[in-house]
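Q: Convert this sequence to structure tokens.
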Amino acid sequence: MGHIGPNWFASVMGTGIVATAGATLPIHLTGLRAFTEVVWVLAAVLLTVLVLLVGGHWLRHPRVARTHARNPQMAHFYGAAPMALMQLVESAAAAAD
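A:
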């Protein structure tokens, strides 16, 4: 846990994009809906785990976490967490239609 960074939230964004793409395809394939739902659940679980891990990282390794926040290459990934949540909400809305 000592070296987990906010860059992992980008994986949730990518997984959520796959769920959105599957939900909004103009063609209907057998099993596509189930695949889309499985990918969405995977992204939701991944987001939950990452929020807990990054929160624990800030509590247990604050010096390393502050280093991430001050690093010009890593700091911009702190925006990936809210974008990952937004992607999950959007893909849920797309699947609901």
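Residues 8 and 50 are 7 Å apart (CA to CA).
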